[in-house]
Amino acid sequence: MNCLSPSILSCDFTRLGSEISAIDSAGAQYVHIDVMDGHFVPNISLGIPVVKSIRNITDRLLDVHLMIDDPEKYIDAFAKAGADIITIHAEATNHLDRAIEIIHEAKCVAGVALNPATPVSSIKYVLPKIDMVLLMSVNPGFGGQKFIPYTFDKLRDLNALIEEAGVDPDIEIDGGVNLNNAKALLDSGANILVAGSAVFSDDDEIEDNVRAFLELME
Ligand code: DX5
Ligand code: ZN
C-alpha cells in the first residue's frame, strides 16, 4: 500500500496539534517525526516528550526517524513514548544487526535509513530483518532541500537487492519529495513518501496538499 508520511519538521510548532489534526483528517496514513541530535546531523530538532504528546492526539502511525548517534540507547524510550515505526541510520551505529533486534524487542516496526552516499549493498545481510528501508534523497538535517536525482539509481539497486534476497520491505523516500516527483518515485518501487515543506507550506493549505499527494498515490 502507498502511504504518505508528512514530516512535522516543516510545521509551525506553535500549532503542532492543529496541523497534525489537519494531516490526519485529510487522510495521511503516517506522521513522520524527525529526531536530530546535533552530532549525527548538524541540526537539533525534537525528542521523546514531543512524541509522547503527539501520541495523545492521533491514531495515525508514528514514523519516528532517528538521526542520532548510537540510536540503540534511545529505542526503548521512543517505543514507550508511542512510536510505531523506529528508523535508525545504518551509519549511526556500529551494531546495526543488534539495533534492529532491539527495535523488534520493543514491538516496533524496524526501519533502516541510508544517507545519499551510502550504498544499498551496506544492508544486504540484514535486509531479511528489516521492515522498511528509508532512502534519504537529501543530506539529512534540514527540511526544504532539493531532491538528489541519483536516488532513482539507488532505488533501482535496492529493488535488485530485494529481489535477490526474496524479501518485501517497505521503501520510504525522504527529502525533497513533491507533487512533481512523487509519481516517478512510486513507479520506481517506493511505497512510502515523506513530505515536509511540500505539505506544511502554509497553514491554510495543509489539507489540500495532503489530498493532492494522496490522489496521485492511489
Ligand atoms: C531531513 C528530514 C526530512 C525532512 C523532509 O533530514 O529527514 O524528513 O523533514 O523535508 P522536505 O520534504 O521539506 O525535504
Ligand atoms: Zn525524516
Radius of gyration: 16 Å
Tell me the distance between the termini. 9 Å
Bound molecules: D-xylitol-5-phosphate, zinc ion
Low-confidence stretches: none
Strand content: 15-25%
- State the order of secondary-structure elements, H for helix, E for strand: EHEHEHEHEEHEHEH
- The overall pLDDT, averaged over residues, is 98
Overall geometric form: globular
Tell me roughly what share of residues is in helical segments: 25-40%
Reported for the largest beta sheet, the result is: 8 strands, parallel
> Based on DSSP secondary structure assignment, what is the total number of beta strands?
8
Counting DSSP H or I runs of 4 or more residues, the number of helices is 7
Strand order of the largest sheet: 1-8-7-6-5-4-3-2
Overall SS class: alpha/beta
